[in-house]
């Protein structure tokens, strides 16, 4: 790891724009499981198993009449779900669980 840091410093590649993925992986900046999960999500979108976040956001904002202020995508035993934090027009924040494949709002609290 010291060798990687020395190489990065030597070439002036400390800025995030120049830090390449192989260097980042070797330096331990990204966890392998996070990259695997990212690949799983991209493959699921290509297979049509889930909608993109942009589509889900539009659906949720229209149905719940608010603005999405936070999101989390997770895989459950029922499939992929988005957990969305939505700030409504009255200022209250609610959590909506949305089926990522259909865009259906499963639950709110």
Helix-strand blueprint:
Blueprint: H1 2-11, H2 21-27, H3 32-47, H4 53-64, E1 66-76, E2 79-88, E3 93-99, E4 105-108
Antiparallel strand pairs: 1-2, 2-3, 3-4
What does this structure look like?
The chain is of the alpha+beta class. It has a domain at 50-108: Nuclear Transport Factor 2, Chain: A (Roll). It has four helices and four strands; from the N terminus they run ααααββββ. The chain has helices at 2-11, 21-27, 32-47, 53-64; strands spanning 66-76, 79-88, 93-99, 105-108. A four-stranded antiparallel β-sheet has the order 1-2-3-4, covered by helices on one side. β3 (93-99) and β4 form a beta hairpin. The longest helix is centred in the middle third of the chain and has 16 residues, at 32-47. The termini are far apart. The model is unreliable at 1-25 (pLDDT under 50). This is PepSY domain-containing protein.
What is the structure about, briefly put?
The protein is an alpha+beta fold.
Q: What structural keywords apply?
A:
Nuclear Transport Factor 2, Chain: A, PepSY, PepSY domain-containing protein, 109 residues, alpha+beta
For the secondary structure, the number of strands is 4
Percent of residues in β-strands: 25-35%
Please tell me the overall pLDDT.
79
Share of helical residues: 40-55%
Q: What's the architecture of the domain at 50-108 in CATH terms?
A: Roll
What's the order of the H and E elements?
HHHHEEEE
Distance between the termini: 46 Å
The total of helices stands at 4
Protein name: PepSY domain-containing protein
InterPro entries: PepSY
Domain PepSY: 51-108
Organism: Kordiimonas lipolytica
């Amino acid at each position: 790891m010291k060798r990687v840091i020395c190489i990065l410093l030597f070439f002036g590649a400390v800025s995030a724009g120049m830090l390449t993925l192989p260097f980042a992986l070797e330096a331990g900046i990204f966890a392998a499981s996070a990259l695997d999960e990212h690949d799983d999500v991209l493959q699921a979108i290509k297979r049509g198993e889930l909608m993109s976040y942009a589509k889900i956001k539009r659906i949720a904002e229209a149905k719940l009449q608010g603005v999405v202020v936070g999101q989390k995508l997770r895989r459950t035993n029922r499939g992929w779900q988005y957990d969305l934090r939505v700030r409504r027009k009255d200022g209250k924040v609610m959590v909506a669980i949305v089926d990522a494949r259909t865009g259906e709002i499963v639950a709110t609290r």
